[in-house]
Amino acid sequence: MIIAMDIGNTNIVFGFLEDNKITGRYRVATKNPRTADEYGLLLRQFLAMSGYRFSDVDDVIIASVVPKALQVLKAAILQYLDIEPIVVGPGIRTGINVRLDEPKTLGADCLVNCVGGYYEYGGPLLIIDFGTATTYNFVTGDATIVCGVISAGIRTQSEALWNSAAQLPEIEIVKPKTILAHNTRDAMQAGAYYSFIGGVEHTIEQFKNEVPDDFRVVATGGLSGLADKGTDMIDIIDPDLLLKGLHYIYNKNC
After folding, report:
1. What is the pLDDT of residues 165-223, one digit of tens each?
2. Angle of helix 108-121 relative to helix 241-253, nearest 10 degrees?
3. Residues that are catalytic
4. For ATP, which residues are the binding ones (predicted)?
5. 35: annotated binding-site residue?
6. Where, residue-wise, is CATH 3.30.420.40 in the chain?
7. Is 200 annotated to bind ligand?
8. Helices 36-49 and 67-81, interaxial angle, to 10°?
9. Does 240 show up as a binding residue in the annotation?
10. Deepest of 5, 56, 70, 143, by most Cβ within 10 A of its Cβ?
């Protein structure tokens, strides 16, 4: 059994994989500062909830875009599991080519999503990750990442609004029942949601205008379900895409 971890800007996802299946997945907030002991306790609890113990873990693989959290988690894994985790980064084999101007600047999460998407569904694909940022990465039919787009996520946009305007309240990010809002909260929800969906659809349409080949659109990330409710331009929703990508990478390297 291996543990796959995705350390994102908003959440850390712990996935347990055994016999090519995801047997458990858990999510905690990244922003809360934690010690190695706290992460060790969380890991013990999550393992127990899935019927495992520390001794059942054979290996750990991590994708991270938060260096400080990565350092503490690596220390926890060494202390409690006596395992040096595999970290996705330069030199690791992925089975995916990266043809960007600066390949090393591609986020580990984007790379792993592209690995998971290509080896699960083939190519060409446009992979959209709905998280703190909304990222778009295009993978060709011969397993090559050739371009990408980065924009603010819907929650990030909304937080900027209510943090910048003193009289605007914090809102829940949901699909509103109607765009015909009659109060401030509903107006903010409608504005956030429909401007977000419009941006997603326009971005996909622009890819279709500029890419000569037909492609499928795969969505992942914590807010992918919210996006799927408002558009028919997404072909596949796979919230476990990154965990699957980590598993593929692990098998290529171990």
Report:
1. 988 999 988 999 999 999 999 999 999 999 999 999 999 999 999 999 999 999 999 88
2. 90
3. 109
4. 6-13, 132
5. no
6. 2-87, 97-246
7. no
8. 70
9. no
10. 5
